[in-house]
Amino acid sequence: MGPLAPTSSFRNAVSAFLFFGILLTGWFPWQSDNLAFAQETAAKDDQDDQSTDDEIVLETTFDLKTYLRENPLAPPDTSSPRASLESFILLMNQAETVWRDVRIKFYERNERFLSDTEELKLQQVRALLDKASGVFDLSGIPETARDRASLEIVLQFQEILDRIYLPNIEDVPGAAAGSFLNSKAIAELPERWTIPGTDLVFERTRVPGAGSRFLMTRESVAQIPEDYELIKAFAPRTDNGDDLYAYYIYTPGNLVAPKWYNMISAGPSWLGRHILSQAYWQWIALVLLTVIAVSLPVFLSRWGRMRAVPVLESRRRLRSLQLPILIIGTILAYRYLIEDQVNITGNTMVAVGAISTALVWTCLGWLVYRIIDLASVWIIRTPVGVGQPMDSSLLLTALRLLGLAAALIITGYGATRIGIPVYGVIAGLGVGGLAVALAAQPTLENLIGGIILYADKMVRVGEFCEFDDLSGTVEAIGIRSTRIRALDRTIITISNADLAKRKIINYSRRDQFLLRHTLGLRYETSESQISQIIEAIRSYLEAHEMVAEAPLRVHFVGMAAYTLDVEIYAYIKTSDRNAFLATQESMLLKFMEIVHSCGADFAFPSSTTYLAQDGEQEVSWPPASPKRQQDTATGDRQTAA
């Protein structure tokens, strides 16, 4: 079975499902022809066959049982065309013997399931069949369906060999199976050998790490199903029982049909008819199981939308794991029922395997992304340490990138499992890397801009900043853009590349607030009052716990048009704007109290008009000098005398 097939824990559920499905259709007969078949096959196996295959086995000096016992993991001998063909025949003869023995004994007992001993023997049969597939070049079959497809190829090829005349084994190029020729002897062999009367070719193939091997070519492997369809109508050269391939594909179960199949075989005859390498009952089961498999995730998705959304973010993320987990579990159960119970084979099995494998790996990547997303919520909520606040936005973005990368890697690996050359596509991107880089330049620029924002620590989420002509609180820094909440509560979205180029004033990074005010006193304020006001304010600031010791300045700085200016310059020791505003408010009220207590007041824009009345003197221009004016006045007095 493929790597996605579940364990045998589904057997009871599957049996109940098929049993009730059959009861609904009204099939109640329980008779079976399998026992008669088993007894007939046992009688035939007791006879000594004189077939060409048996003669080949007798002529060889290769001890198969010893070889399998001492080298259970060793591949078949494919060092020559003869060794490949002979190894295949030896392995298949042993597999058929054990397989038929298990089937006969199972149907002779009145038990529903195979015994542990029979299960162990079937495992040996599967190992022999898998080892026999080593003489084929199976690289043309998608990896996800290779296990099942190789089993079918092995059985079809065996049925072909049973219906054609093989040459004397000594006439086939190479040495007997088990010789394992060295590289020099292999080099002397022909490059290709074709089975007489067929188009099936064994060709020298370079196997990485194993040197040259003679395997049946990919083209010949692809031709085997067609050759079998042409030759299956011919009788075998010797009567070895039923067609093992036909028994395998048209019966449920894995190599041995379960006894619930008796109900199907005893039902309407049309259920056993074949179309597209499947029996009618297999098509019906495939459709029903597909409908159920599709309905479950759809039902869960709609049910999830009708439920109330959790308030906690972690609960919402945890709920998002349900759908991918259900899809993966449904597909695994679906594959188990389709492959191990209904036993869908051929191209249909390849298509189902490819689609289900693609869905499983895609959902697995989706699940990993969701798990990392959930972990990010828990990590962000966990304190890192005293005085070391965590940059949640940076961590969240980093974890999302990690989750996205993990999901892409998992999905890409899944694509290789169904035969998509993802690594070749990635390598091809290197050739067109320049075009891709130019096309993705804005995206890369924004990504690098975001990295610069994080690396230089210009801004963080929650900080109030001014960016040239706009200002607001940073709400999120994403991969491409940054969102800012303006003072009017609107959202401003700006690209990271543009933001990194702007002048940024970060008000949230201030460790202290500047207190700078100018008190405008009236011109009627005397010098002593000004000195008294300055001294009182300075003493108040020096004694205040929120005021930094330096710089601290209170000075009379100038005389304006209508005010006498006293400047106050100090720093308030807080980074909280609200705390600063409250402190500043109390200080300004205190400054007003000090000014009023000193008998002074604050100036406001005003003007003073001075009025005077001039005497009736004759005005001359230009006015005379003071001495001349005095002389003129003396002369006037003398004249008057």
Automatic annotation (TrEMBL):
It is found in: Cell membrane. The chain crosses the membrane at residues 12-30, 280-300, 321-338, 350-372, 393-414, 420-440. Pfam families: MS_channel_2nd, MS_channel_3rd. InterPro entries: LSM_dom_sf (IPR010920), MS_channel_C (IPR049278), MscS_beta-dom_sf (IPR023408), MscS_channel_2nd (IPR006685), MscS_channel_C_sf (IPR011066), MscS_channel_TM-2 (IPR011014). Residues 614-641 are annotated as: Disordered. Belongs to the MscS (TC 1.A.23) family. It comes from the Bacteria. It is a multi-pass membrane protein. Residues 444-509 form the Mechanosensitive ion channel MscS domain. Residues 519-597 form the Mechanosensitive ion channel MscS C-terminal domain. SUPFAM superfamilies: Mechanosensitive channel protein MscS (YggB), C-terminal domain (SSF82689), Mechanosensitive channel protein MscS (YggB), transmembrane region (SSF82861), Sm-like ribonucleoproteins (SSF50182). The keyword Secreted does not apply. The keyword Transmembrane helix applies. Its main location: membrane. Keywords: Cell membrane, Membrane, Transmembrane, Transmembrane helix. Signal peptide: none annotated. This is Mechanosensitive ion channel family protein. Residues 631-641 have a biased composition (Polar residues).
